[in-house]
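User: My collaborator sent over this chain with a note saying "see what the structure looks like." That's all I know about it. Can you take a look?
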Amino acid sequence: MATPPSDDNTTIGGLIRLSGLQRSQLPPADSTPASLVPLLTSLLREAVPFIDSVAPKKSSGSGSGAGASAAGSSSPWKILTTKRHADSAAGIDLLERTVVKVKGKGSEKEKEKWICRRSVHEESSEAGRRTASWAEFRESFKERHPETEDAFTPEVVGARRAVEWDCGVVVVKLTALPDDNNDETYGHFSLAVVEMRHHIGKPLKDRTFPVLQMTCAVMEKKPPAISTPDDEHHLESQWEWHEKPEILIVSVTVSDFGTAPEALLSKDAPGNDTVIGAYASIERIRKLPPQSDNGGGGDIEWIMATASDAGGVLPKWVQAMAVPGQIAKDVYLFLSWIAKEREKQK
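Assistant: Without extra context I'll predict from the sequence alone. Here is the result:
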């Protein structure tokens, strides 16, 4: 099982890094939901405070713009710019952060440059609004993340779930550490090894990124529906778990998955003309709290932070220059795609 992350808040820990995982660190195929809890907890322990440092829940409002994205002068994130596009009513804030070395069992992991985007969208599926509803965000990224990216990203030429684990109905409660405010419960987990193949264009070979991908939602307990006056007060043990409007998607490189029998897009075999890249990301999508007591819902905040290495002969400085624009482009592409999908359903 993966080593639990460091409590040092200047690092992201040793798990969600470009070095990622080896096949030997993946759960056995016959793992029970309960046996997956330590891995799910380790991923959450690293991912939740890291992504919250972009726009802390305790202080982030519904406004977009660089001032709303960063946590102030003490934030580890550096503001780069804000981009706008005709397909999105919201601006996209771009930030960067250098993750410091963290000591592993055998060696030190190198510094990594993480790039992040944050955008805040009106919650609506109305035509012409250049945004999306919560249901559309949730279905696209919680339930169908690989399929959605394959559908709206022109450069993606293949996506598949190579291995999947049944997480059952397990829930994981995070108890807040001294340096964060994350004291929440997560559930509705999915866990899979996902292969994504990107076409770079000649003379470069395609890049395939095999990752262990976890999705989940923030949960809360509510009493069951009251059917009679005698049921007005239920025991807490009778309360049921319900999703809150907040989802998390975590992707971790599986560097040697090409040798796995389940591999296809990243298979290490003659004729599979691809370069295996490294990719790690943390994505949080949530409805912001309403800004007044009028009963209306909040806007949707979409944050994604990533580090990547396409490998091969492509210089890292060229990759670094391209990443901010690429991740901002994903917002425009998704909103344009979801609008077309809406029209198809009429």
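A starting point for your reply to your collaborator: Confidence is low (pLDDT under 50) at residues 1-10, 64-69, 292-296.
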